[in-house]
Amino acid sequence: MVKYQLMGQREIDTCLSKSVALGVLHDCLEDGSIIQSKHFRSELAHEKLTFEDAWHVLRTGQIYDNGEPDIKTGEWKYRVEGYENGGKWIAIIFSFKAIDMALLITIFSVENKGRHAR
After folding, report:
1. If you placed Cys at 61, which of 57, 71, 87, 116 could pair as Cys (CB 3.0 to 4.6 Å)?
2. How far apart are CA 74 and CA 98, in angstroms?
3. Whose CA is closest to 91, among 61, 117, 51?
4. Residue 85: DSSP 8-state
5. Whole-angstrom distance, CA of residue 114 vs CA of residue 39
6. What tens digit of pLDDT does each residue of 72-98 get?
7. Would you tell me the crossing angle of helices 51-60 and 18-31 to the nearest 10 degrees?
8. Could you give the CA distance from residue 28 to residue 34 in angstroms, rounded to a whole number?
9. What is the secondary structure of 14-72 as a DSSP string?
10. pTM of this prediction?
């Protein structure tokens, strides 16, 4: 069951706070669905990572910046960052297609994690 109902809406059409976006993402991992875009799968292979590596970052990572609107789709995009099991700092860009469905757009390693290191 999805914990964040957002005033009874199934679709998300406003920018969520960082903490709410992370909570909705975790709900998608537990009780919803995660969709991997073709570009995400391509970049996952390019980074020599597995989906389990990405899953770990999705479960344990943090969202440090506010969401940004996607100029093509009008949806809000978020960036979750954290260490994958091998110790590489990873960023995953995702959006919500529905309150219980997250689309993974891309993944990349961050060589110099700079201000995002916590």
Report:
1. 57
2. 14
3. 61
4. T
5. 25
6. 988 999 999 999 989 999 999 999 999
7. 130
8. 7
9. SPPPHHHHHHHHHHHHHHSEEEE-HHHHHHHHHTT--HHHHHHHHHH-EE-S--EE-TT
10. 0.87
